[in-house]
Every structure is written in C-alpha cells, then in structure tokens.
Hints:
This protein has helices at residues 45-58, 70-74, 93-96, 98-142, 160-177, 184-191, 195-210, 222-230, 241-253, 270-281, 284-320, 332-348, 357-396, 398-415, 420-455, 457-470, 504-518, 546-572, 588-595, 627-630, 633-645, 655-677, 688-702, 711-727, 736-754, 756-762; strands spanning 16-18, 21-24, 34-39, 63-66, 75-79, 87-91, 475-479, 486-491, 534-538, 580-585, 603-612, 618-624. By secondary structure, the protein is of the alpha/beta class. The strands form three sheets. Strands 4-9-10-3-11-12 form a six-stranded mixed sheet, sandwiched between helices. Strands 5-6-8-7 form a four-stranded antiparallel sheet. Strands 1-2 form a two-stranded antiparallel sheet. A hairpin with a 2-residue loop joins strand 1 and strand 2. Helix 9 packs across helix 10 (270-281).
Amino acid sequence: MAKNKPVVCVEYLENYTYKSFVNFTNKSTPFWGVNYIYGNNGAGKSSLARGISEKGNSLGKGVALFNADYTRENLLFESNPNLISGVEATFGSENIDTKNKIAKIESEIEEIKGKIEINNKDIVSNSEVIKNKIKSIFDENKKDSKIRNKSIKLEAYENGSDWINKLKEIYSRDLNNSVSMDTLEDVDNILSCGIDEANKRITLLERLTSNLPGLSGDSFDFDKVISILEKEYEISASMPRDILDWIADGLRIHNEGDECKFCSSNEINVAEIEEKYNSYRNQEWSRDQSALNRLEKEFKDNIKSYESAYTRLLELAQKSGIELNVSINLDTDDMCGVLGELLGRKLNSPEASINCQKLAEISKKYSDGYRDMRSALDAMRTTMADEKKKYHKYVNNIEEYEKKSVAQGVLNELNEGSLKLNVEKIENCVENNKEYEILISEKIKERDAIKRKVSRYRKFMEYLNSELKNIGMPFRLHEEDINSGKYLIKNNQGENISIHDVSEGEKHVLSLMYFYYTLFDDEHLEVIKDDIEVIVIDDPVSSLDEGNKLYILNMVIGLANMVGREYKEGCKEKLGLKKQIFILSHSWEDYTVLSYHRNQDISEQFEVYKQMNDLGQLCTTIRIMGEKETTGSYARLFKEIYEISKLKDLSDITECQENHSLNSMRRVFEEYLSFKSRSVLLPQYNNIDRIVDIYELSIAEGDAKKGLISNNYRSKLSTFLSDINVGSHRIASVDGKSKIIQYAKTLMKYIQDTDKVHYNAMKQ
C-alpha cells in the first residue's frame, strides 16, 4: 500500500556535485520527514549531509548540522594562563566569539561615552562663557546696591539645558517681580546716575519747583477797550489829557490856604479848582478816558508778568533738563505797540471812532499765549513732580531696579545677544548626549542579551553534569564565571584536569550534548526551536566509546520521535510536517538501533553507495532500502541474548555486551510480545499482568498441569522488566555482569516456555 508522502523542507537534491557526487539528483527517491541513511565509510555519506544542509539553507530554512567538524567549530578549548593546570571549554560557535562581540559592543559604548565626555566639556566651557558674561552684566548694573549675583552651579542640574532653563527662569522671575517702571528706558536712565546723583536730582527738582513763576493777567478786558475806542464822544470843554493829569497831580499836593506851589500866589482857591476839575471829570468821556489809562497800565503789567514767567520757564527748563513741549513764543512788543497807538489816537480825538480790527487780532493772540503759558507751567510742574517720584522710587527701591536691570541684560544676551550661540551649543550638546545615551542603552541591551544568552548555558552545565553522571563520565563542568559561557573541566574529585585527559570520544559526547541542547527552545528540552526546520546528524556515534554509544543513540531516537509528534500536530492543522531530520550512520548495528520501530508514515530508509555512471565514473548515489533488508536485526539480537544466557564465566562478557545487552533484550522482548499478542505490547512493568497472561496461556496450551507462573519467576520477570527499560536509555545500574547473564536467562526462559518451536529455531 502506497504511503502518502508528507510535505517536507528538503524534498530532493538537484544536480548536486561535490566530491563523489556528480550531477546527483534524487527526484525518484525523494526525502521524507524522518530520513535514516546508511552508508559505509567512504561511500559519500558526509558529502550527502553537506548537500542536504546547503539545500536547506538555499531554501531559507533553518538548518542544524552535526558532523565531524562540529566539535572543532563549537567546542573550543583554550589554555587559561591564570590556571596552572586547568582547561576551559567554551561551548558553541556563537559562544566562541561571544567575548569578542561583547568586547566590541563595550568598546563602542566607551567610544560613545567619549563623545559624551567631549560634549560635556563643551557644555562646561560654554557655561563658563555664560557665567563670565552674567558676572560682567551684574558688575555693570550693581552700582551702589547690595544685591548679590546668582550662584547657579551647573553640577546641580541634570544637563546644560536644564541649567540654561533655570537661568532664564530665575532672571525672568526677577524681571517680572521687580518694582514696575514706565519703561525700561526709564530704568536705564535712572540707573545710569547712581544714588548720589539721584539724590542731587531730587534736591534740584524740589528747588526748581519752588521757583516756578506765578502768572497773572491771563484775562484782559479787550471788549471794554474796543467799546471805548469805537464810541464817538461829545466834548463840551475839551482839555488835553496832559493838562488834566497835571491838574490832578496839583490837587493832590495842595491843601486849602496853601501857597500855590506853581506861582507862589497866596490867593489860590483849591476848593474851587477841585470843583471845576471834578465837574469836568464827571463827564462820560472823562470817565472812559480814565478807564483807558487804567486798562493800558493793566495790559502793560500783564505783559511784564508774561515775559517774566516766560524767561523764568526757559531758565528752569534748561536747569532741569526737561524739554518744553508747548509753543509759548508771544510777540509782546508788537501787541503793546498796537495798543498804545490806538489809545493815543483815541485820546487825541475822543469824538472819532477808532478801527479796532488789529486789537481784535491781538486779543486772540493774547488769550492763546496766556493759555499756552499756563499749560507750559502746569506741564513743567507735573513733569518735575513725576521726575521727583521716579527718583524717590529709585532711591527707595534701588535693589529691585538693579535686579531688573541685571535680569533684562542677562535675558537679552541669552535670547538674542552674544550668549545665544553659546546657549545653542549647549543645547546641541545636550540633545546629542540624549541620543548617545539612547544608543548606549541600546548597546547595553544588546550586550546584556548576549550575556543572557551565554548565561543560559549555566542550565546547560546543570543538564550536562546530570547526564555525565548518569552515563558514568569521569569529569564535570564547572562554570568559570556566571556570564562567561566558559567552563572548567574537573575530575570527579574536583581537581582540574588537562586537555590530554579528555578523550576524543568524550569530546564528541560533549559536543553532541551541546548540539542537542541548542536545538530546544525550553529548558525541559521538549520543544524544538521554530527557526530550526532541518536537522542533519552525520554519524552521531563516531569515535565514541562503547559505554557512551547507547546514550547517544537514544538521544537521536528521541529527536526523531519529536519530529514525528510535530508531524502529527501539523496534520491536525493541515500544515504537514513542521520539521525534518536526517540521521546518517556508517555502522549497520547503530543504524538498525536508530531505525528500530520507526514511524513508517513519515519516514524512509536509504542507503548511500557508489556505482559506475554512464561515463564510467565511480559516483555516489542513494536507494531506498526494503523492509526485508532491515528486519533481520531481531534474529541477530536474539542470538546475542541466547549466547549471553549460556555463559558460565563472567569475564566472557564483553564491554559492548555489558552496555548494549539490556537494550537488545528490550527490543527482542518487544517484538516477541507484539507477535504473541497480535498487537503492540511494550515490555514494561505496567504491562506485567498481560505479559503473565500470555505466559500462562501459552503454557496451558502445551501442558494443562503447568497453567500458573511461579512466584519466583514472576518476581524475576518484574525486576527484569524494570531494569531493561532503564537500561535501554542509559547504562543500567545493575549489579555487575551477573545481572546481565541472569536477565538473559529470564528472557530466554520466557520465550522457551511460551513457544519452544520459535525458541529452537532462533537459537540456531
């Protein structure tokens, strides 16, 4: 019945040429999931293993290859000068250069740290520039106050940017919290003088303020003057103005009865003269004439007050340094001239109406001039008062002002001035350092990942030492360092041993154990790594001592069984075979052990051999081996056990028989029980009842009187079943060679008692 071939990674080689392979193609004999390949030494078996590995790699499959080179490539022994007679073993090709990888990464880390250090020096140097500039700004603005410079240490902050930000923060706080001023220009102008000058300024302003002139006559009755000038008077007796004035003056200096001071006459009648004078004055024109005289004098007095105030205002503005912002240039001479001319014309001709257009113009100029003068005086007074307030405020708050001035200077330099470039350099260094720190972190993670991978091999040490103990190896591994991936080899007494004390076979065992261990993704060695898809094992027991062969064979058988289990899981998921394994051997005995009870649904057996091709060349090829070619092992194993059962002298048992006979007994008994029970019946202690039933039924068929098994034989049979299963997977811890002979007799008795015909046929 034809088998359904599973989906595999490497199905065949095509046009493979290497050594004895010439354009080799095996499409007619494709590979299966589990491949058992036999070939004599020199047949081309190792070349085939190489070709399978190369094909797997070319298909992008993860390939794990164990061959003769593996030990050299993955088990590196090196002398340790620190140990007098020690041997270090570094396992794994990836571990051989692990130290170099780690050293390279650590070198890269140090290189990056060097760049960080350079940046840190740049940060410090640029920070010193900033510090010096700030000190200069402080010294320039401190003047007479007792303020202190800010002492901000770079070391107190995580990086230079934090330090810069702190500088800006504290100086911004000084700027915002200081006593408010109208403008920074005001602050600068005030701070430029100092406290003494400020006090002098205050004194000057106070003195000048007290000397501000008063201003009178800002209102003048121009309407009255105009009404008089424009009115036409009727004069009954006209008298010149100068005469009237003369009379008035004379009346004031004379009393009744006095001698006339003008003519020395004693007949002067003062009362009569005064009566006549008053009569004249009481006339309308006389009254208005007097008004004109009074108004003229008032106007001139006002003009003098204006001119005096104007002159004084100019002097105060000059002394105080305060600029006048109003136009007060009034032409007083012209105004007085116009008024005088109009009044003279009226006094000379009272009956005439005088044109007052010019006087109206003067009135407007007069009122505007006085208004401007009043505004100028008020403005000067206000400005002086404000100035005094500012300087008083400065004197009272000098520290706050100077803090503000320093803060403004520092912030201007940091943000836009000469320090901006230094700030940018610091910030760039900080940002670069952050990137460097991230890179260092990534490098450390990479390094630690490698170290963790290496340190994983501590569990390998624990696993290997346990296995070395089970198979009776005379040495153990001792880890040199928890993360080194190196081990010291010591004997079972804990003494360092030399590399010359480790045999080639023992090195081979260590190497194959390592290979086996690295296939798995878990410490329990139950799950093969996902990235390992093709496993190639070429001569796993080559150069091994007989005592180690059984252990290695069962290790390889276990791998084949794992591939089989994964295939079953793949079938459930309709994925086919997940893994593929190739097991190659030059030993027919080892080959039959390895392929015994193979899963025929996913496996095939091949032979590598040489034959002449059409060109007369001796080339390597492969063929599928028939079932009959591989079933003859039962007869050979049976004869081996039979001969052991007949031995009388324990010294006749060979080392090979001692190490392998229990496995041979299990295989013979398993095949015999399966034949007798018509089903698979494993020779295990938990199947003792079924095994006894077969025994008793078989005996009863031959002789009814012997239908029951004896208690003694049942006890021997139970011990036999227990030990052959332990001994099939590792060297049995039985009591010497006598136990081997005893178990051989127990097995042969069972077969002889249950089937004499078969027994007699097989012992021949």
